[in-house]
Amino acid sequence: MTELWQGLVKAVELIINLDPEVMEIAGRSLRIAITSAIIGSIIFVPIASIIAFKQFPGKRTLINLIQTFYSMPTVVIGLFVFVFISRKGPLGELELMFTPTGIIIGQVVLIAPILLGLTISALSGVDRTLIDTARSLGASNIQITLLVIREARFAVMAAVIMGFGRAISEVGISLMVGGNIRGFTRVITTAISLESSKGDLELALALGIILIFIALVVNIIMNRVQQR
Q1: pTM for this prediction
Q2: CB neighbours (10 Å) of residue 30?
Q3: CATH homologous superfamily of 2-227
Q4: pLDDT higher than 90, residue 190
Q5: Ranked by mean pLDDT, which of 110-124, 130-144, 197-211 comes out on top?
Q6: CA–CA distance from 182 to each of 25, 34, 185, 205, 223 (Å)?
Q7: Which among 12, 51, 96, 132 could bridge 85 via Cys, Cβ 3.0 to 4.6 Å?
């Protein structure tokens, strides 16, 4: 217990003193996760809008399938991305393996079901009267879509924040696709795994505290957005 307490104290000191290695790993994790959330939003929010507003056979089944992938293990997604971007994979020539870009691709795939499912739920929850009124006033489909997204913007923002939280807390994809290369692809979760196995509790605890703090901030922001 004493050893754990001493490690915790030293971990706090590393954070207070802005230890270069701790700040570097934390900064890289934030950049990768934020980039993944932005790219995922640009791609999947419009797709979710199409699914929400269009009526087609199998729509309910598709939505159920998307929701099923909410809890997809990160190592499974990491395996599929690994196969695609490895040297022998379809995207092998792009040399994305063991790069931050490769991790971003994996995280975008990881958060896709969350962005799709939660955005569909958000848009479907908008009062149908709003859509009917806009249509009766001569609004086009694009105008109606933008109007509904604006009406449900806080719920959509909550979906994006949830996606970010999922991205920054995953470890399987970053480890399998990124390779945990020091100074290049090492992020908070992979660093915690490595340092704890090496017995460096101070650095592992420092990064763990930062990750918990980020999770707390994400949770507070999401609650505020949902209240709006």
Answers
A1: 0.89
A2: 16
A3: MetI-like (1.10.3720.10)
A4: yes
A5: 110-124
A6: 9, 20, 6, 18, 35
A7: 96
